[in-house]
Amino acid sequence: MFCPNCGAEYVEGITACADCRVKLVVEPPHPGAGKPIEYEELLSTFNQGDIALIKSLLENEKVDYFFRGEYFNQLDPLIQPARLFVKKGHRERAKQALEGLNVTFLGVSGER
Q1: How far apart are CA 99 and CA 22, in angstroms?
Q2: How far are the Cα atoms of 12, 53, 94, 110 from residue 103, in angstroms, in the given order?
């Protein structure tokens, strides 16, 4: 099973992509689909408001990203931060998009 949007491969029994939230298809949607996409961690935060702002800025710049642990923070606040990962090759664009943020004020950890 494959995501028609990002090309991620899933095991039998999964019906929707966890990242894209779209229904999976049986065949890879395009050549090269199913290959792992490499991401690197850029920053982390405990604040849901920070996450919303960061998402908005990155989407505006068309940066490929995801947050790991975004919703766990709601279950057990301050245990583990949400971690922002950006696609390799999008790091500089992401840094530029987030450049104006006062990370000390927002409670976001700096670049990794």
Answers
A1: 31
A2: 41, 12, 14, 7
DSSP 95: H
- The per-residue pLDDT for 47 is 82
In a 3-state reduction of DSSP, which class is residue 66?
Answer: strand
Return residue ranges of the chain for CATH 3.30.70.
39-106
CB atoms within 10 A of CB 108: 24
Q: Which amino acid is at 20?
A: C
Place of tokens 């990962």: 85
- What pLDDT score does 42 carry? 92
Task: Provide CATH code, domain 39-106.
Answer: 3.30.70
pLDDT of residue 64: 93
CA distance 57 to 52: 9
Q: What is the pTM of this model?
A: 0.61
The residue ranges of the chain whose pLDDT is under 50 are 105
* Residue 48: count of CB within 10 angstroms of its CB: 14
Q: Which two tokens stand for residue 26?
A: 């049986």
